[in-house]
Amino acid sequence: MINRKRYCIANFKMNLGFQSGIMNYFSDLNNSSVRNNSSVGIIISPPFTVLNQSIALSEISKIDIDIAAQNVNDNDSGAFTGEVSVRMLADCGIGHVIVGHSERRAYFNESNKEINKKNQILIKSGITPIFCIGETLDQRQNNLTKITLKEQLTKGLNGTGNKEIIIAYEPVWAIGTGKTATSEMIIEAHQMIRNILNDIGFDGEKISILYGGSVNRNNAKELIGLEGVDGFLIGGASLDAKHFCDIYKFIEESV
Ligand code: PGA
After folding, report:
1. How far, in Å, from the CA of 77 to the mean position of ligand 1?
2. Which of 5, 33, 99, 110 is least surrounded by CB atoms within 10 angstroms?
3. For 44-71, b where at least 16 C-beta lie within 10 A, e where not — what string?
4. What separation in angstroms does the CA of 253 have from each of 28, 152, 190?
5. Is the CB of residue 244 below 6 angstroms from any atom belonging to ligand 1?
């Protein structure tokens, strides 16, 4: 059996600035009983404005915490007001970037093509994409889950080579809604994703596939026990460091 790395990843979205939380967040993490386990990576994705401070705080933290960005522009540089390039993120010491989150697909019209470009430039720069995929409720109800995942994976990973990547399976209808997918749906989707990865030239058995969508400290223990689930991408519940630590502990116990 391959021991894939497990992850506990926080996505703060547009929450927690410097004054409004990051400092306290790191002190809560440091005061918790969480200590690193090399089999479980802890990654926090704060907004752009506090990436530098978060890196500085992570460097003096008792716990190994990687800092991820929530987005990147797919151009190298130039007249793109309000955008941030891969090189800028690399300069800050960012090792991971969330790509293709359903909120970016839905509210900022990100296409599979644009997402593919982001995956390509990140991988080229040695930054690991946390590549999000998932079906809408409509797609699930119309039996289009497999086709949707296949299209997102095939187009999103085209030309990236068999490089390091983390996949987050996030059914759109489960994000921020308090509705988690059922165990059967999650196991089935994770297996589907591994099969598709194998079909397109990746080694699906070696790639960590996380679940995301209303994960919290009440359901994390059960969800991490599901076959093929290698950790979580957590939105709402990650905003409270104590909840995030509790979820981390369930992942650690599952190793
Ligand atoms: P949620 O968000 O945990 O609040 O559902 C997950 C995500 O958007 O990554």
Report:
1. 30
2. 33
3. bbbbbebbebbbebbeeeeeebbbbbbb
4. 21, 32, 21
5. no
Q: Which residues contact 5 (CB under 8 A, 6 or more apart)?
A: 39, 40, 41, 208, 230
- Least Cα distance to 124 among 90, 80, 82, 84 occurs for 90
Q: How far is the CA of 11 from the centre of ligand 1 (A)?
A: 7
Closest CA to 85 of 43, 52, 58, 125: 125
Q: What is the pLDDT of residues 66-96, one digit of tens each?
A: 999 999 999 999 999 999 999 999 999 999 9
Upper half-sphere CA count for residue 242 (Cβ side, 13 Å): 0
Q: Where are the beta strands (DSSP E) in the chain?
A: 6-11, 40-45, 66-69, 96-99, 128-133, 166-169, 209-212, 231-234
In this predicted model, what pLDDT tens digit does every residue of 92-137 receive, in sequence order?
999 999 999 999 999 999 999 999 999 999 999 999 999 999 999 9
Q: Residue range 174-181: average pLDDT?
A: 89
Determine the Cα–Cα distance for residues 81 and 8; give it in Å rounded to an integer: 32
Q: Find out whether the beta carbon of 247 lies less than 6 Å from any atom of ligand 1.
A: no
User: Would you put residue 46 in left (φ > 0), alpha (ψ -120 to 50) or beta?
Assistant: beta
CB neighbour class for 102 (10 Å; exposed up to 12, middle 13-18, buried from 19):
buried
Catalytic residues: 101, 170
Q: What's the gap in Å between 167 CA and the centre of ligand 1? A: 14
Report the distance separating Cα 84 and Cα 75, nearest Å. Answer: 9
